[in-house]
Structures are given as structure tokens and as C-alpha cells.
Amino acid sequence: MLERTMARRARILLLLSHLGGGGAEHVMxxxxxxxxxxxxxxxxxxxxxxxxxGENLPAGVSxxxxxxxxxxxxAYPLLRLIWRLRxxxxxxxxxxxxxxxxxxxxxxxxxTSVLVRQNATATSVMAFxxxxxxxxxxxxxxxxxSDGVICQSREMARDLAxxxxxxxxxxxxxxxxVDLAGIRAALAGPAAGSSAGQQLLAVGRLxxxxxxxxxxxxxxxxxxxxxxxxxxxxxxxxxxxxxxSLCCTLGLQDAVSFExxxxxxxxxxxxxxxxxxxxxxEGVPNALLEAAAAGLPxxxxxxxxGVVDLLRGRRGAWLTPEISxxxxxxxxxxxxxxxxxGERFNQIFPIxxxxxxxxx
Length: 360
Prior knowledge:
- The protein is of the alpha/beta class.
- The protein has two domains: 177 residues, Rossmann fold; 159 residues, 3-Layer(aba) Sandwich (Rossmann fold).
- Helix content is 36%, strand content 17%.
- The protein is built from 13 helices and 15 strands.
- The strands form three sheets. It has a seven-stranded parallel sheet, with helices on both faces.
- Helix 5 packs antiparallel against helix 6, helix 9 runs parallel beside helix 10 and helix 9 packs across helix 13.
- It starts with a helix and ends in a 7-residue tail after the last strand.
- 43% of the residues are buried.
């Protein structure tokens, strides 16, 4: 009995570039909190981050900031960390780290298994990437050497199998975890934002693929039908200044609120009339899952097969006919004409909760 009690916990190393970036970082933090401390010894490696002061890190997780200037410069410190820890499992949470890990994989201890998490549809990454041919080659050459790939939807898995030329038996479909307890607590606490008029909410990194420029242009059309409608944008990114300038050009200064990065964004859910996902391409975004867990009505573009699979035919969810300004405007107007003020819907698709009392 004593030997069984003292048995060594399985050692898991979760890998990211850095904390505080977006969905991948949020998912890995939730995963770290959800893993059983009795079963697992959890480590978090941050390849391109040297300081973790001020970060809200999961309790009981050993954090290893490696301090590389960029992901590809972290090869040596990452190898040194893996040989020091000798983990049973390495799980990479973002594609740039996955490529690095799989390139180094032949140098890992033989007993270390490598899993990679795919956080976007592979074909859309290639279409939007700066080096699509190299990206395709990396997918095809490196992903086959992993012990498994985690996707968030069946459509994402099919897309990856086709793009990377790997068998679907190597791919596991697991929904992202969602902090249901945190969302419920936020809904019961103080709210953020205005409650006057129709309130649109969009959450995500301010980058081109997220389509916030399309949403701002669509908002001009929506305001012709709903002049009191307002938009709250929660997130930060390289396109922020361009989006602010676009607001001025479109005369939307008084209709749009830029809130910056808010982690988590749940306090904006209470006053939201409608959640909007205007992305040009996506995987299965956490913001969409979290808004659904809060019961928010939502409009989304068909940015991936995963998004379409999740929302098609669901009450309180509208898919745009295409990824365009016109499609967004028409669909938002339809949704606002349909829903009642403050209307909420039951959880509209299955979600993997993170508040599992460390049962994993």
C-alpha cells in the first residue's frame, strides 16, 4: 500500500511560446489546472518568455521560462529542459512550437512521447501564412513523427489529415476546455460595458484573419436599421491602430469601444445582446465556446468546417452565407430582429469543462 501511495506521478511538459497571447495560451492554462495533481506532475515550458512575474499561473505547476528571443532560437534550452525533466509526455500548444519540438524529437529521450495540439485549420494556416509552401512541407514531414495530434473538431481533423498526409487514426478530436465555473461567477458578479441599446460583443486577437475590419464596415450598414447599436471589441494585436483609424474613417468613434486584452473577458457577457465572430479563418475559437457557455446569441462567419459543424441548425446561432461585409451585416440585422432583449439560450453545443475537480 505504501509503495502504491509513493508511486511516481507521470511527468507532463506543456509547451508554449509565451503566456498571455491568446486562445492557445488560455487552453493550456486551463488544461494545467484541470490535470489531477495526484496523477500528474505538471510542468509548463515557455520557450520565448524569460519572466513570468505578474502572470496568473496555475497552482502546483512548475514553470520554466526559457527566454529565447523567438521560438526557433529555443532549440538548445528546450533540449536541455527535456533531458533534465525526462517527461513521459510533451504536449505542444501552438504550431510554431510544434514544428520546433518535432524537429528536435530524434534528440529526445526514447521514452518521451510527443503530442501536438492543432489550434487552426491547416489549410487556412497555409493560405494565410507568409511561407505556405514551407508550412505545407513542415506539416507533411514533421506531423507524421508525432505520437498524436489533437484537433478540436472532426472537420479540423479531416482537413489536417488531408493537408499533412497523415492517417486519421493518428488524430484525436477533443473539444477545448471551458472555464464554466469562472463564466458562471462572472455572470453573477458586476458587469462591464453599457446596457443601453443593442450591444454587439467581439473577442479575439486584433489581426487580419479575425476579420474585425469586416465587422466594422458591416456595423455601418447595421446602424441604418439599429442606430443605437454599439460594438465592444475585446482583444489586442498588431491591427489595433489600423482598426481605430478605420473607425474614424467610418464615423464610428462613438459606436465602438476598444477594451484591449481582458483575461478572461467574461464580465462583458452580461450586457451583450449578440456575440459576433467575423473571422476570415479559424479553428474552433475559445471565445465562441465561452460565449455559448454563457448562453449568448451569436453570429459567426463560416470561417472553418469546425465552426459550421458546431453552429449549423442550433437555436440562437446564425451563420453568415459567406465571409463578407454584406453577409455579416444582413445576418446581424436578422439576428437583432429575431432575439428579445437579454435573451439567452441553453448551452448550444457540447463543451469540455475545465472545472473537473482535477479528475483528468
